[in-house]
Amino acid sequence: MTSRATQQARFLMCVGWSDAVKEPITGDASARQYHRLTQPESGQTAILMDAPLDLCGTMQPFVEVASYLSNVGLSAPKIMHQDIEQGFLLLEDLGRAVFAAEIASDPRREAPLYTAAVHLIAKLHDHPNERLPLYDADKMAEAVDLAFLHYRATPTDKLDAPAKDASALLWEHLTQLSNFSTVSLRDYHAENLLWLPDRDEDKRVGLLDFQDAVQTHPAYDLVSLLRDARRDVSPELADHLIGVFCHLRGYDEDRFRAEAALISVQRNLRILGIFARLSRQMGKPHYVDLIPRVWDHLQRDLDHPSLDRLRPTLRTILPAPEPDFLTILRSPCQTLR
Question: What dihedral do alpha carbons 104, 108, 109, 112 form, nearest 10°?
Fold first, then answer.
């Protein structure tokens, strides 16, 4: 038994779950691992989160955001037991009704589930949290550097002149936005949301993977939901839900749509860089399969008239995801590790 396995077994013994049957659950892009635990006699279930500190950092942000979400009346999993120093949490099991799977089994559920998710974002924005990190124009522009460094035929560790120009232009656009104070869970999409129909109102949407929550622009989680890297959301539904959100929050719709297009461009540029790096440096080439969809999202939002200056710059320096280029991205990088 490895040292980590020994630590995990000790934790489960201390909290009374050592006899539970373990079932692995597909995790996120990080080094965190998840297991569904089932007590053999009672059938009670729980989720084990295993996040080694040396690979994942401290779990404290997850614990704090979970508490915040519960306090504002939302369905984050309750923390049943924790060992922050060793990197273990035993969480309430919110079930298996992931939005993406629910919609795949019955496409008619897409609109009502997504509408519920949009209403939750609107409620979340009524509850600011100044303890969360600030994800403002400077940090958002810096995060996009990942695309210019990794989403290219030959990755590099320094921005070249065209990339610097593109980054500066994006920053200039972002600095025109005035609101970076709303709560964003950041990875708010159909594989991180669970349907809990027996709960009331906004509690019907179960929340996962929120440890990277920040204060940022109010469009961020909306475009995360509607410009999903993992599944297609029809343009008609996405357009309708942006209108719903603007009505709920009292935003000027034309202005908000322009700002949302810019936030979506920023987010999808960053995702292109992350997926390329995950493939070439971390041995996860399956993320390359998602790049064409991310690219399509990027192009759609770049078409917004408010981005006339940014559009030609980005389209000039970013390679389209043609088959030959995707093959390059699937190949391990020997120089940057």
Answer: 150
Q: What is the CA radius of gyration of the chain?
A: 21
CB contact at 8 A, 143 and 270: yes
139: left (phi over 0), alpha (psi -120 to 50) or beta: alpha
Nearest to 301 by CA among 237, 215, 238, 214: 238
Instruction: Give the number of other Cβ atoms within 10 Å of residue 86's Cβ.
Output: 16
pLDDT digits (tens, 9 = 90+) for 212-256: 999 999 999 999 999 999 999 999 999 999 999 999 999 999 999
Query: 3-state DSSP call for residue 24?
Result: strand
Distance in angstroms (rounded) separating the CA atoms of residues 82 and 109: 35
Selection from 1, 6, 311, 29 nearest residue 170 by Cα: 311
For the chain, count helices (H), then strands (E): 14, 9
Which helix H or strand E contains 193, and what residues bound it? strand 193-195
pTM over 0.85: yes
| Residue 232: half-sphere exposure toward Cβ, Cα within 13 Å | 8
Query: H helices of the chain, where?
Result: 3-14, 53-56, 60-71, 99-105, 110-124, 137-143, 145-150, 161-174, 220-226, 235-249, 253-282, 291-302, 310-317, 323-330
**Alpha-carbon span 40 to 204, nearest angstrom:** 28
pLDDT of 29 over the 70 cut? no
| C-alpha span between 266 and 141 (Å, rounded) | 7
Structural tokens at position 202 = 């906004």
